[in-house]
Amino acid sequence: DEENEQAAEDMSSFDEENEQAPEENEQAPEDMSSFDEENEQAAEDMSSFDEENEQAPEENEQALDDTSSFDEENEQAAEDMSSFDEENELAPEDTSSFDEENE
């Protein structure tokens, strides 16, 4: 009798689960639709990343060109500073001649 009672309870539990199954089956396509939308969005995001990665080498080349230009400007600035240094070395000689004239 106890086994029969247990079996009856188990069958009752299975019946409840089977009653819920149609509702769960209706929900499943909606869930799948949501996953499909998420997958489409992920594909779009990946496509965007691919485009950015394709542009990266061009941007890197431009950055190298820019730094090369800065190097040239820095070399020119160093030459200019060297020229100023030479002029400043001559300045005491020039002031020396003024001093002589002023005496």
Give a description of the structure.
- It is a single chain.
- With 103 residues, the protein is mainly alpha-helical.
- The protein has 1 helix and no strands.
- It is rod-shaped.
- It starts with a helix and ends with a helix.
- The model has no long low-confidence stretch (mean pLDDT 86).
State the helicity in percent bands. over 70%
Element order, helices and strands? Answer: H
Largest sheet: none
Provide the β-strand percentage band. Answer: under 5%
- SS content category: mainly alpha
Distance between the amino and carboxyl termini: 137 Å
| SS summary, helix count | 1
Mean pLDDT: 86
- From the spread of the alpha carbons, the general shape counts as rod-shaped
Give start-end ranges of low-pLDDT stretches.
none
If you compute it from the alpha carbons, what radius of gyration comes out, rounded to the nearest whole angstrom?
Answer: 42 Å
What are the defining features of this structure?
103 residues, mainly alpha, single chain
Fold topology:
Blueprint: H1 2-102
Describe, in short, the structure shown.
With 103 residues, this protein is mainly α. The chain contains one helix and no strands. The protein is rod-shaped and about 135 Å long.
